[in-house]
């Protein structure tokens, strides 16, 4: 069982906590972080979710993403997720935006605020989180946009949202 996540009101103020499953089943408003890592060549690092993930299995996703745990702020969650999912430490995250979305996927309601960050690094991650991430690869911006537009079932809602808003 994962840690409880922060539940917020319409003003993005913390009002409680719940499990991810409770938030998805009840449509509780919660927080997530989304990180897009770029290299000097302008490519974007995407992670591939394992086929066993509970939501968006076998899909390409932001470089890193995840829920903000209860007792955590956005920045702490972003750095934690980067380290957990990709083993990345020591990069500087720059916030690029905050948006709210409310979508349903296979009976799960994703009612959330997403804070987005960018970072720059050159090397591919050396460690992927077992059971969650099975690949990480550099893509050109055109390739990412083509994937989002032409193969929407191969990407997460979060990757689509970030590309539509910031790219």
What is the share of helical residues? 10-25%
Integer average pLDDT: 96
In angstroms, what is the radius of gyration?
15 Å
CATH superfamily membership? Nucleoside Triphosphate Pyrophosphohydrolase
Weakly predicted, low-confidence segments: none
What is the H/E order? EEHEEEEHEEEHH
Report the span from N to C terminus.
35 Å
CATH architecture: Alpha-Beta Complex
In DSSP terms, counting alpha (H) and pi (I) runs of 4 or more, how many helices? 4
Strand percentage lies at: 35-45%
CATH class: Alpha Beta
Q: How would you characterize the largest beta sheet?
A: 7 strands, mixed
Backbone shape: globular
CATH topology: Nucleoside Triphosphate Pyrophosphohydrolase
Number of strands: 9
Q: Structural class given helices, strands, pairing?
A: alpha+beta
> How many domain regions?
1
Describe this protein's structure:
- It contains 4 helices and 9 strands; from the N terminus they run ββαββββαβββαα.
- Strand 3 (30-38) and strand 4 form a beta hairpin.
- The protein has one domain: Alpha-Beta Complex (Nucleoside Triphosphate Pyrophosphohydrolase), CATH 3.90.79.
- The strands form 2 sheets. Strands 3, 4, 5, 6, 7, 8 and 9 form a 7-stranded mixed sheet that branches.
- By secondary structure, it is of the alpha+beta class.
- The mean pLDDT is 96.
- It is globular and about 40 Å long.
What attributes characterize this protein structure?
single chain, alpha+beta, Nucleoside Triphosphate Pyrophosphohydrolase, 9 strands
Write the topology of this structure.
Blueprint: E1 5-8, E2 14-18, H1 20-26, E3 30-38, E4 44-49, E5 60-61, E6 64-67, H2 74-86, E7 94-105, E8 108-120, E9 133-139, H3 141-150, H4 157-166
Parallel strand pairs: 3-8
Antiparallel strand pairs: 1-2, 3-4, 3-6, 4-5, 4-9, 7-8
